[in-house]
Amino acid sequence: MAKGLSLLDRAFWLTENAQNPKHVASLQFLSKPDGAKDDYCSQLVTHLKQHNQGFKPYNQRVVSFLNLAIGFRPVDSLDMDYHVKYHQVDDLKDKTAIHNFVAKLHEPMLDRDKPLWQVHIIESPNSDEYAMYLKIHHIYGDGASLITWLQAAYPKAADKQFVPFWAQSRRSKPRAKKNPIASLIKGLWSLVVTFVHLGVILFFILLKILRINPLYMPIPFSGTKTMLTGQVTKGRVVATTSLDFQAVKALSLKLRASVNEVFLCCFDIGIHKFLKDHGQQFERALITQMPINLRRPGDAVGGNKIAILPVKLGYGQKDPYIRLRQIIENHSIVKKVARKVSPAALSTYTILIQGFALIFEVLRLSDLHRPIGNILISNVPGPRDTLYFGESQLKSFYPISTLTAGGGVNITLLTYNNKAEIGLVCSDRKIASLEPLAGYFKEAFDLLSDSVDNPDLTTDDLGELAKLLPQPIIEEEFQTEKVNVA
Predict the structure, then answer these.
(1) Rounded to an integer, what distance in angstroms lies between the CA atom of residue 18 and that of residue 25?
(2) Rounded CA gap, 28 and 240, in Å?
(3) Upper half-sphere CA count for residue 288 (Cβ side, 13 Å)
(4) Which CATH number fits domain 7-167: 3.30.559.10, 3.30.830.10, 3.40.190.10, 1.20.1250.20?
(5) CATH for 193-383+402-451?
(6) Of the candidates 433, 424, 426, 423, the residue with the CA atom closest to the CA atom of residue 407
(7) What is the full DSSP assignment across 116-144?
(8) Structure confidence at residue 332 (pLDDT)
(9) Nearest to residue 392, comparing CAs of 65, 104, 105, 43?
(10) Each residue's pLDDT tens digit, 103-126
């Protein structure tokens, strides 16, 4: 685990409340071993609870003062009745029911007086599969760190006498001794560079506000208000779906686009169709927030090293291919920004903007202003090989994230065993289900794929109030907004 707590790590602790907990999770489906008895899962839970000695980060509780995280302190032993739970449901194959059940598990905060993780084993009668819901606090690490830890702890072959991930020790790389004077000079120089680059970002944002230089990433809080954005409340809705990752890669090569851009296009089409179902129409493109991994090769695993930058999506085109080209153009603008400034400046910019969003949320003003973005989309590279949890083969691995201040849908992709596993979560304040949205993503991918050989293929009306005049790829940010709610 990375040494010490970064400002971003502390932010996940400071900004947490009962309405918006800052844990992330995964919903895993596993197959029972051949010949497993009816009490396999209950025996598995008994086995897991025997391992009450944990290793970093799973034995670490947060030490805080006035709600400010100071550091970590190891516990002598784990309270396994808290950390490992067992549940029975009627039918594990009832996907909607499982999503609703997991949404309830995802709502409450983790106990801040204990190490910040839980495992929930979920089974149904006469099923050859079971599910595992793993919940862990974001202060321990970003998605890349957490997946690295889990991947290392899950063996590639069945193991009856396995040790669960929290009880496995991990070797830390020896740290080279540093010259304190050189470290001080390097730190001061890094601080100077960070604030200079942050000033550059803010300067170009100002130029965009003044309409002097429109070719820059979206202005903060210029997203479109929708039924999915606004004040985050306690309830959650969850859905999952998956795509053939090899098919996604093949399509991205055919379209001269990145895998992320193909996903962005599918999510753009899907979210528009979902909002149109609820009577909402827009005169502007939606905006997604995209986390960027700032970790360099060789950096220690653990903690949070990410920035979250906005990307404008497509608008005004029913041809899926044209919408994809719009997204590629807008994505390239943000990528150029990320390449020209330091990672620390990007991280500081993220904390600055998200900090304002948090203030609005604490003051319960999130419904009164535009959001930073309409959705948050992250792509976490996962294990390529089939993994096992003890004797159980891991069949599916769906990530379920937290929500940013201002709401919206959080969509997380994790690649596992040639599949793109997709988890969706948002507040249940105005909607009861994300199942249609999960289905629209798959429909949008098929539509984009078919449009390659059929240029006449178009989307249905996406609920956009497109003008008769052709729209430029990069639109003005503060264009008049119209939202019709049925």
Answers:
(1) 17
(2) 11
(3) 29
(4) 3.30.559.10
(5) 3.30.559.30
(6) 426
(7) SEEEEEEE-TT-SEEEEEEEEEGGGB-HH
(8) 95
(9) 43
(10) 999 999 999 999 999 999 999 998
